[in-house]
Task: structure prediction
Amino acid sequence: MKVLLFGATGQLGRECRKVLGQAGWALLTPGRDLVDFAQPETVAAAVENLRPQLVVNACAFTAVDQAEAEPQLAELVNGVSVGRLAAACAELQIPTIHVSTDYVFDGSATTPYHEGSVVAPLNKYGHSKLQGEQLLRMQNRKHVLLRTSWVFSARGNNFVKTMIRLGAQRSELSVVGDQVGCPTYAGDLAFVIGQFIERYQREGNLRWGTYHCSNAEPCSWYEFAQAVMEQGVACGLLRQEPLLQKITSEEYPFVATRPAYSVLDCSKLEARLETKMPSWRQGLERVCAELAGAMPEELPRTTAGAGQAATAR
Ligand SMILES: NC(=O)c1ccc[n+]([C@@H]2O[C@H](COP(=O)([O-])OP(=O)(O)OC[C@H]3O[C@@H](n4cnc5c(N)ncnc54)[C@H](OP(=O)(O)O)[C@@H]3O)[C@@H](O)[C@H]2O)c1
Result:
């Protein structure tokens, strides 16, 4: 099975490389120098030239606050190029597995969002990802659209690494306590993608459509930070837990507005794959253990980047 993976250097992309590589599929992973999602024609050309049997798109403009300043770039990468990718795949009868976000929702719900819930993004990133969803559905019937949330891993920029870095530097930290969602370990999401590919290989078909995929156990950023600190100490990444202060979103200088509640109902995916999504706690243990065994240059960087890294100060 020849699989074309975009975004192979990102959090999810790296985990996909591991999972799909171990499954023995031939992976094609063109980098940004060859395929730039800010230039949609390069995305279509890659599909036409490489002729894979399946495409996984883990590429995205994920800097939520930065998207407010660069909405056109976010739309090109997360919207227009996804449409071009889907059209190129449809032309060659290739299925597209694509990843989207909980930020397509406005957060006004009080119970978990399901796949058919009304979408109403609050920020430019969410709008650009929604555009990608719509173009994907329009252009390629053979798609699996996985909405996920609060992604973390041992690589790249994410909340876990930011917390460990700040926890090592400070004795006291303020963390937002009024946004609730589901952290998702990139390795668990990559595993799910692998399961879909395996089924496609076995059955020659998939139940196309949208699926929610996040780890179990909703929490606030504050609760997630507590668990990160505990695990950080247990793994020897931190000498002691800093004092955590719970603050509101209003007290934190976000550039982009975030949904207050973005818990995803994953029961459709769980029924389809006959599995239960594990709690994020297991993924957190793995990531902290990986960080504890990492080389110094792999330890948390000092910049807050992807998604929700900037949720504490
Ligand atoms: N991170 C989250 O908390 C979160 C939450 C919900 C949903 N998601 C979704 O989950 C998916 C995976 O996210 P992630 O956290 O793994 O993202 P990530 O770590 O930020 O990685 C993004 C990937 O996209 C590539 N990329 C960005 N702009 C590009 C461009 N113009 N041309 C080519 N490649 C480009 C990056 O390449 P470089 O290495 O060259 O920059 C990187 O490989 C995305 O669809 C994202 O929207 C993420």
User: Anything to note?
Assistant: Residues 7, 9-13, 32, 35-38, 58-62, 77, 99, 101-102, 129, 148-151, 156, 306-308 surround NAP (CB under 6 Å). The chain has ten helices and twelve strands. The longest strand covers residues 96-101. Confidence is low (pLDDT under 50) at residues 301-310.
